[in-house]
Each structure stands twice: as C-alpha cells, then as structure tokens.
Design a protein that fits this description.
The protein is α/β, with parallel strands linked by helices and 157 residues long. The protein has one domain (4-152): 3-Layer(aba) Sandwich (Fructose Permease). The protein is 30% helix and 24% strand. The protein has five helices and nine strands. It has helices spanning 16-26, 42-49, 63-69, 86-94, 124-135, and strands at residues 4-10, 30-34, 57-61, 79-83, 101-106, 114-115, 121-122, 139-142, 151-152. The strands form two sheets. The protein has a seven-stranded mixed sheet, with helices on both faces. The relative contact order is 0.20. The mean pLDDT is 95.
Length: 157
Amino acid sequence: MPNILLTRIDNRLIHGQVGVTWSSHLGANLVLVANDEVAEDDVRQNLMDMVLPETVETRFFSLEKTINVIHKAADRQKIFIVVETPQDLLTLVKGGVPIKKANVGNMHYEEGKEQISSTVSVTEDDKKTFQELDKLGIELDLRGVPDEKGGDIMKLL
C-alpha cells in the first residue's frame, strides 16, 4: 500500500504553498504531480522543481501512469499527490489509487464559475464531481494552508 499522506487539488500545481508549507507540514519526501500536460512539459517541471527543498523529490506522471505505478511505491516514500482539478482526482480514485482524503486548495475564478470561497471557484461539472467523490467516501477538506481552519467543501456546494 503506497504511503499517501495527502492529495491536493490546486490548479497551480507546485508553487510556494505546496512546495514549502504543505510538503514540510506533512513530512513528505515525494511530491507527485499527476497531470497529463505537465508530464510532457520539461519546462514546467523544471520551474516546479525549483520551488521544492532539495530533500523532497518530485515525479511528474500522467494520470494513467500514476494509476499504473502508485502501488509500486517504496514504503520509505511519503507521498504528497497534487492534481489540477477535481476531475483528475476522480480519475485517480476510480483508477484504484487509495486516496481517502483530499485538500481542496485553489481553483481560480474565471467566467462561468461560482466563487464558493476566497480561493475556490467551481463550475457545475466541478460540483457534480465533488458530489461523486463524496459518495465514494473521499473526505474533501477546503483550506489554503495547513494552519488554516479547514471546512467540508460539500457544505458550500
């Protein structure tokens, strides 16, 4: 069983909050970005790598590769998974990645989205995806940083 400490939805993927604050708080030694586009983009990977402390490794896998290899993770790997969207999270869960809890951190506002918190805006599809994740028993904790008081995103939908 892979040692997944937490999975975070953040459309920015790895940045200061994820790279320093969350990985340190969790004690993660591996940040796995599960994202089809970034898995193929060396420039974005290099930019994200610069944010992390040297003690934290990174992997940039497609969603399919994450599903296929996560169960081969070594016991010593303390894994923090970062995905871009709730749909990506649902793909991983349905693919058998043993995720029980997810942090909903940042989903930018744009035209056609409803802002439900200061850092999270959702479409109707996002709402349906969160509802499906909730039915699958995934705990969905809304918070930007670890020392913030979290909340159940389902109460805001």
